[in-house]
Amino acid sequence: MARIALILVPLVAWEVCSRLGLINGFLFPAPSAILNKLWVQSGPNGNPPYAILWHVADSMLRLLSGLSLAVIIGTLLGVGLGMSQRARLVFQPIISILMPVPTLAWTPVLLLVMGIDNRTTILVVFLAAVFEMIYIVASGIEMLNVKMLWVAWSMGASRRQVFWRVIIPGIFPCLITGTRLGTGYAWRALIAAEMLAASSYGLGFMIYDASEYMNIGVIYGGVMMIAALGYLLENVLVGKIEAATIEKWGVLNER
């Protein structure tokens, strides 16, 4: 209840101030007017019809595509770095150099190479999450009890069996943590990239397009949807996976 109150109280104050004219109603329209605008745009009377649904669907498709690639490739590369000292010596400096570079800095280069396309935004999402996944998975491998590997190898386990039955379960908490952090980074990078690289739909494109026509209600509505969807993705979706796996297995430290 306290969390809900922390959100509702500012919204109610905003609504009252906007309706009483205490703040600029054009620059700060009432939340009820913003929600009504979103409701209209999400239905058959929107311009175009069901516009909000198309924007959300395109953003989610780009996010899940890029994030899935980042989780798969980041896990494989992270395991490789964690298992091989030679690979760490070669690639860790490169990752350390590239990791602090803001993902949006790559967008102009990607636009020149790939053009305004879904591939550009998906690649931006991938870059936003993959380095975090590599770093966290490699760190998880380094912390893995080496005796577990020795036991598996001494019992004749193949490399594939060791990977799927020892390494992946052993680093699963790191995978969940990396996915949670990567989702947050990827979501923010996607919205920014859509403002530059999306050709038609997407929440970032919707906000940028609305700013061209001074459609303030749609801009605020887009920001609210980005915040709500980001929370659901990072805390509810990943949290459900966490609760169904590592919390259930008792391998996650209590917060």
UniProtKB/TrEMBL annotation:
Q: Which GO terms describe its cellular component?
A: plasma membrane
Q: What is its main location?
A: membrane
Q: Topologically, how does it sit relative to the membrane?
A: Multi-pass membrane protein
Membrane-crossing segments per the record: 63-82, 94-116, 122-141, 162-179, 213-233
UniProt-listed InterPro entries: MetI-like, MetI-like_sf
Q: Which SUPFAM superfamilies match?
A: MetI-like (SSF161098)
Alphabetized, the UniProt keywords read: Cell membrane, Membrane, Transmembrane, Transmembrane helix, Transport
In which compartments does the protein localize?
A: Cell membrane
Which residues belong to any copy of the ABC transmembrane type-1 domain? 56-237
GO BP: cellular response to sulfur starvation; transmembrane transport
Family per record: Belongs to the binding-protein-dependent transport system permease family.
Q: What is this protein called?
A: ABC transporter permease
Lineage here is:
Bacteria, Pseudomonadati, Pseudomonadota, Alphaproteobacteria, Hyphomicrobiales
